[in-house]
Amino acid sequence: MSENTIQFVVFALVTAAIGLFTYLKCKGQNRHLQSATKEYFLAGGGLTWIFVAGSITLTNLSTDQLVGMNGNQMALLVWWELAAVVGLILLAKVFLPVYYRYNCTTTTELLEKRYNNKHIRAVIGSLFFLGNALIYMPAVIYSGALFMQTMFKVDIPLMYIATAFAILGALYAFFGGLRAVAVSDTYNGILVLSMAILVVFLALNAIDYDFSDIPAERLTLIGDADSPIPWTTLFTGMLFIQMYYWGTNQTITQRAMAAPTVKEAQKGVLAAAGIRLLIVPAIVVLPGIISFKLYGDIGDAAYGRIVGDVMPLWLTGVFAAAMAAAVLSTYNSLLNSATALYVCDIHEAYINKDPNVVKLSGYVTLLLTSLTLVLVPIYQQAESIINLLQQLNGLLSMPIFSIFVVGLLFKNVDARAGIAAVILGVVMYGLLTFEGSPLHSSWHYIHLMPITLFTCVSFALIVNRVVFGQTAQWAGRSVPLKS
């Protein structure tokens, strides 16, 4: 039996086993096809803390993290994961009690209830939707295809692999809903984390645990001004990025809002924070650093190459199944959350209050999958996939986060003032960060994020007073911050 045949057989068996376990766990959890919003998008509020933790972990941890962070081949990128622990704690203790108090299906539903305006929910929901469609989904599919191509050293065109991933992920998201996505995420997460930890030890063994000859700038946690994460950014934009991503991003918070109670959700989120602190930092930087010693600066190809070289043949099929699971889990999570945003924030508000959720979701899934494949070639041109993602993310993150800040901390603010601030923030951040702009700034893009945030918040309050004649009133104490 050839090596490729062994790898494929093991891959197929492991993938089929996870699918079977997911089916058995979800069997009998029927949904009413004509009115399935809560079941389809929030698993009927039936996720225990284990599945909340598992789904959050694997939704975030995919090949864009493993490939992208290891592709920088330096320890500095670990700050994204350490700062994420803070973001998850804030989600558990600050944001979740508010979402549960307002009985939200989407994070943007909170905005509608705080501003008493459905249009602001639709605008922000549309921005989240576009972020998933134009940034995260094609990046996940591209990085997953690149990893498979690099690890197995195959001549199959990257677009063929990307197409297979996109179609499989779309089918899973459409037929399973959030319940199946979360359950499979948890099973897949155990496999992914186990395999990723094994890679770390195999890679360390390959260099006899000797980090000599690796440049100091590859090992330091204090980045200079020209590094991907200058140390000063840890005190400016890094915390706000984490608050936005973990506290307001629909793809992440949707899992936490699918528990039966806020306490159960908090247990899951805090468990995910523990995994993020104890396991994830090592698996997203050490293989990349070691690959620099073995191969030199090879960028995003680093992780796939070192896995292909250090992993025993009989395990490569299992690892391929784990990575495919990570890609599919993140992709179908993004699809499910994007579909929830469209159905709940736009379609039900403006087109049909009682749609056939499953059928409508199918059309949205088809559209998003097609768009993903169109955009994959653009991401192939990126020098570093993770750095590109973080920079693009800034276009939406701080403007959107500002509207949550204003909505939670103030009352008597006109929704139109908030929408105007979001538009200003997107334009401002784009002009400041992207080369070729007449206002392009030499400041690091993370430094520009708090500037964008505070500008948006101030602009919303000023427009509210000057244009709409309303005086914002402090309401922070009216928002529950404890469970």
Written description of the protein model:
The protein is mainly α and 483 residues long. It has one domain (3-387): Sodium/glucose cotransporter (Up-down Bundle). It has helices at 3-26, 37-42, 49-60, 63-71, 78-101, 107-115, 118-152, 158-206, 216-219, 238-247, 250-256, 262-278, 280-295, 302-310, 313-350, 357-379, 385-409, 415-433, 445-466, and strands spanning 410-411, 473-474. Strands 1-2 form a two-stranded antiparallel sheet. The longest helix is centred in the middle third of the chain and has 49 residues, at 158-206. The protein is globular, with a radius of gyration of 22 Å.
Secondary-structure blueprint:
Blueprint: H1 3-26, H2 37-42, H3 49-60, H4 63-71, H5 78-101, H6 107-115, H7 118-152, H8 158-206, H9 216-219, H10 238-247, H11 250-256, H12 262-278, H13 280-295, H14 302-310, H15 313-350, H16 357-379, H17 385-409, E1 410-411, H18 415-433, H19 445-466, E2 473-474
Antiparallel strand pairs: 1-2
Q: Helical proportion?
A: over 70%
Question: What structural class results from the helix and strand content?
Answer: mainly alpha
CATH architecture: Up-down Bundle
Give the topology string: H per helix, E per strand.
Answer: HHHHHHHHHHHHHHHHHEHHE
- Report the β-strand fraction as a percent range: under 5%
Q: Could you tell me the number of beta strands?
A: 2
Low-confidence stretches: 30-35
Tell me the span between the first and last alpha carbons. Answer: 57 Å
The CATH homologous superfamily is named: Sodium/glucose cotransporter
Total of helices: 19
Determine and state the CATH class: Mainly Alpha
How many domains in all?
1
